[in-house]
Design goal:
With 599 residues, the chain is mainly alpha-helical. The chain folds into three domains: 131 residues, Oligopeptidase f, N-terminal domain (Butyryl-CoA Dehydrogenase, subunit A, domain 3, Up-down Bundle), CATH 1.20.140.70; 304 residues, Orthogonal Bundle (Neurolysin, domain 3), CATH 1.10.1370; 45 residues, putative peptidase helix hairpin domain like (Helix Hairpins), CATH 1.10.287. 64% of the residues lie in helices and 3% in strands.
């Protein structure tokens, strides 16, 4: 934890927050103005179908409101993140959230009313008001949902079920975060509380007994409450089935995928492709076993580092140069934008007391993107910089090419630009690595990401699919059933070379993401798509850099699947995932060779 206060930070190391609002007073002015404008929007209620002119005016007004809201929200929260202990900005952020909720309420009549307008009538609107065609995709997206929208009265009742529907997730989250304790443990000679927060870190401990102890202790605790946890998850499955049924979807999976118009094959092909490449994972397990020098490898040996840290200190000035060189392959214009971001203070670089942890890229339409870092000068943080600048430039390209309506991008493609940057940087750094130690470190970093993103998230995705299928078939969801599904998957994904300790069957109960159904697969697909694209770039495929920038500029102006097709990546086939995992195999072979040479 840094002892430096926010005030002590040098201006050149802080993001140019003034580019959003020069003063808090300006924010207040906009806030009052928006609160007033919002109320006026009601005048469109019941009139959207009157004429093309009215519909266009309403769309434009709505964009304006949302765009202003975004700016208010982002400023208040970025200010808050600079020092979360600052009461003034705590309040500003809370006010922004309230106003955003009110805005949502004011706009809630909009989509149902559009669904009421007949297709013929809409066609005549486009003819008489050509400018309205800008919103055609928005309107079509709305109409796509129409078969799943119920009568007004039914929708009102459904809206009132939301809090009940959130109960399973709330119960789980309260249980896990507030009630569940794991007792005490001795780590490196010090006795401490074993917590959710330090569990994975303790699994990285060099002392195998410590790892085993933590592993046993945590899962024994989950096992103790297995029936409660299964009941909570079963409640969540029941909620999904309820909404899928009343909204007339064939299954829960179909309902979740329909939000982004993602074909079902994308989900199933991902699982198929990963299954086909499981031998590479088995190979990895074998190598880990050898490097750890153990006769048997257990589930508590999965996180302990197998390569030494590269203790090189990398000042931020150098990190910027490394990232620029690594991404030079994307062309001068890309590097110029990176430079612009570095020199015009898009980035909040160092930590200070109260600053939000981690890293992110964020921003508001109409202003440049921002990046929050807590830069510590190690190699991992250089990758974080490349990753977040990937997000930032994705936003920059989309914001400049698209109107507000289509500038934002979906989660499905969100991690493509960031991962692609990391892959390009790794490739560049491997080429220039000084010695085997550095190479091993880089390769291991890359392999870890593959393991955690493609293999692990796909296993999660398969678990969710199987659990939902069982529930949809009317099977009783018991603790035993969930444990069996999870245990079998774990065995399948790690192979016979791994001792699948019985405790691991309870891991499903520890994953908060399972309460956001069919979400995690996107980490695996996004990562795979990024690797596929970065490979094309590295191999110098003609036209790929231009195509990639078209993708970056696409925002949400097309379906995610079509956006990726611009780069020749078809996620409805197994090819991109298999190609990505082939990169895993190749990198693994390189890694093995280096490690064996130095053993
Ligand atoms: Zn990211």
């Amino acid at each position: 934890m840094s002892e430096m206060t926010r005030k002590e930070q040098k201006k050149e190391n802080c993001w140019a927050i003034e580019d959003l609002y020069a003063t808090d007073g300006d924010w207040e002015k906009d806030y009052s103005q928006l609160a007033g404008q919002m109320k006026n929007f009601e005048s469109y209620k019941g009139k959207l179908g009157n004429s093309g002119e009215t519909l266009l005016a309403a769309f434009q007004e709505m964009d304006l409101l949302k765009c202003n809201m975004e700016k208010l929200y982002v400023y208040a929260n970025q200010r808050y993140h600079e020092d979360t202990g600052n009461h003034k900005y705590q309040e500003l952020s809370a006010r922004a959230s309230r106003l955003e909720m009110e805005l949502g309420h004011e706009l809630s009549f909009f989509e149902p009313e559009i669904m009421e307008i007949s297709v013929d009538r809409l066609e005549s609107f486009y003819e008489s008001v050509p400018e309205l065609t800008k919103y055609k995709r928005k309107i079509q997206e709305c109409l796509r949902m129409k078969p799943h929208i119920l009568s007004k009265e039914m929708e009102e009742i459904l809206a009132q079920t939301q809090e009940m529907g959130n109960a399973p997730q709330n119960i789980f989250s309260m249980f896990q975060n507030a009630d569940l304790t794991f007792g005490r443990i001795v780590v490196d000679g010090k006795e401490m509380e074993l917590t959710q927060g330090n569990f994975v870190r303790i699994l990285e401990n060099k002392d195998r007994n410590v790892r085993k102890q933590a592993f046993t202790q945590v899962y024994a605790k989950y096992k103790e409450f297995q029936n409660t946890l299964a009941a909570a998850y079963s409640g969540n499955l029941a909620k999904d089935m309820f909404y899928a049924k009343v909204r007339k979807y064939p299954s829960c999976l179909d309902m979740e995928l329909s939000r982004g118009n993602i074909p079902r094959e994308v989900y199933t092909r991902l699982i198929e492709a990963v299954h086909r490449k499981l031998p590479a994972m088995y190979d990895y397990v074998e190598m880990r076993k050898k490097l750890l020098g153990v006769d048997q490898i257990h589930m508590y040996d999965v996180y302990v580092p197998i390569v030494d840290k590269v203790e090189k200190e990398i000042p931020f000035e150098e990190a910027k140069e490394i990232v620029k060189e690594g991404l030079a392959i994307l062309g001068e214009d890309y590097v110029e934008l990176l430079e612009q971001g570095f020199s015009q203070r898009w980035i909040d670089i160092y930590e200070n007391k109260g600053k939000r942890g981690g890293a992110y890229s964020w921003g508001a339409y109409g202003t440049h993107p921002y990046v929050l870092l807590n830069y510590q000068g190690n190699l991992n943080h250089v990758f974080t910089l490349a990753h977040e600048m990937g997000h930032a430039l994705h936003s920059y390209y989309s914001d400049h090419a698209q109107p507000y309506t289509y500038a934002g991008y979906f989660i499905f493609v969100a991690e493509v630009a960031s991962t692609c940057n990391e892959a390009l940087l790794i490739h560049h750094m491997l080429k220039n690595a000084q010695d085997d130690k550095e190479k091993a470190y880089l390769l291991n970093y890359f392999l870890d990401q593959f393991k955690g993103t493609v293999y692990r998230q796909t296993m999660f995705a398969e678990f969710e699919m199987l659990a939902h299928e069982k529930a949809e078939k009317g099977e009783g969801i018991t603790a035993q059933l969930l444990e069996d599904i999870y245990y079998e998957l774990n065995k399948k994904y790690f192979g016979d070379g791994m001792v699948s300790d019985p405790e691991i069957a309870m891991e499903w109960a520890r994953i908060p993401h399972f309460y956001t159904p069919f979400y995690v697969y996107q980490y695996a697909t996004g990562f795979s798509a990024a690797i596929a694209i970065s490979n094309k770039i590295i191999n110098g495929e003609p036209g790929i850099v231009e195509a990639y920038k078209k993708f970056l500029s696409g925002g949400s102006s097309m379906d995610c699947i079509d956006l990726l097709k611009i780069c020749g990546v078809d996620m409805t086939s197994t090819e991109p995932v298999e190609n990505a995992l082939q990169v895993f195999e190749e990198r693994l072979a390189e890694f093995k060779e280096i490690m064996e040479r130095n053993m």
